[in-house]
Amino acid sequence: MKTLSHLYHPVTGTPFQQDETYREVAPCAALAPCIRCFWGSEGPQRDRPGPAGIVIPDTCMDIIFRVDHVRQRVSADFCALDESSFITPPSDGLTGGFSATFAIRFYAWTACLFAGDDLRGSANRQYPAEQFFGRIVRALAPVLPEARTLEDAIRLAEPVLVALLDARSADPVILNAVHRMLQTSGCARVGDIAAALALSPRQLERRFDAAMGLSPKALSSLIRYQLLWQDMLYSPRFSVLDAVDRFGYADQAHLLNDFRRRHLMSPREALAFARR
User: Fold this and answer.
1) Selection from 163, 37, 34, 11 nearest residue 103 by Cα
2) pTM of the prediction?
3) Helices (H), 111-265
4) Cα(213)–Cα(265) distance, rounded to whole angstroms?
5) d(C-alpha 253, C-alpha 259), whole Å
6) If exposure means fewest CB atoms within 10 Å of the residue's CB, which of 126, 169, 224, 247 is most exposed?
7) Rounded to an integer, what distance in angstroms lies between the CA atom of residue 183 and that of residue 186?
């Protein structure tokens, strides 16, 4: 797991956002192989107008706590893996709320290490977090209203997560398969990956479905999209033609159509939205 977290750093559709409503914080060393980041608001915030946002397939899963400081209520949702983007509506700021958000973002292959049940068939859906992560919710929901800052919430969460983590339960088949996907930028054939692991493609699919609710082919395709998105964001000499070859697309139209299908925008529109 440690190797995978060093190789791969999935990002959101607005990776440069760092403000009082949203900030990412790296986890402690013990949790870094399993948790991409903690994220949330700086603390309780008055509801205010805000622009529309976008949630893209970042190959991560999130437990999102929302602390209503007016009603003294805590809700928790689990967002499983998504295969396509969706636009979040703008806020009109008229609810009069006073709340905080705190979230735990897991890699696709590590959320299962903390879940009370397998994640079979969970992709592309949102659930009450209690359904899969009851121990985390029961430990954190009563104490999160005490947190006045994002760092306070993290200090409450990290000991709970460290105590629940059993790295020995990680499936080496899943880890080795994902490593192969990352090495090949999501271009490796599932049949070749399964053969290298002495499994049939169907056996590999069952392992992936239980661990993350998604097939190996679907995850590999999402990794390819994520790495392409990161190239667009961070490479000063990004070239669509070069990316066609690197990521195994048939031609430029294939790449652009696949990106728009995932991201709901053209590369030019996506970059402008990310940097607004």
Assistant:
1) 37
2) 0.95
3) 130-140, 150-164, 172-183, 190-196, 201-212, 216-234, 240-246, 252-263
4) 26
5) 10
6) 169
7) 8
What's the confidence (pLDDT) of residue 96? 59
223-226, long-range: CB within 8 Å, 24+ apart, which pairs? 223/8, 223/59, 223/178, 223/181, 223/182, 223/185, 223/186, 224/185, 224/186, 224/187, 224/248, 225/57, 225/186, 225/258, 225/259, 225/262, 225/263, 226/10, 226/11, 226/57, 226/58, 226/59, 226/186
Distance CA 195, CA 234 (A): 34
Provide the token pair at 75.
Answer: 């809700």
Q: How many residues does the chain have?
A: 276
What pLDDT, in 10s, does the model give residues 234-249? 999 999 999 999 999 9
Q: List, for residues 97-144, the tens digit of each pLDDT value.
A: 779 999 999 999 999 999 988 999 999 999 999 999 999 999 999 999
And the tokens for 266? Answer: 């053209």
Q: What is the pLDDT of residue 1?
A: 65
Please give the CATH topology (third level) of the domain spanning 172-274: Arc Repressor Mutant, subunit A (1.10.10)
How many Å apart are CA 63 and CA 37, to the nearest integer? Answer: 11
Residue 247: CA count within 13 A, CB half-sphere: 28
Tell me if 209 sits within 8 A of 215, measured CB to CB: yes
Q: Are 196 and 184 in contact (CB under 8 A)?
A: no
Domain residue ranges of the chain, discontinuous segments joined by +: 2-167, 172-274
Q: Is the distance from CB of 47 to CB of 90 less than 8 angstroms? A: no
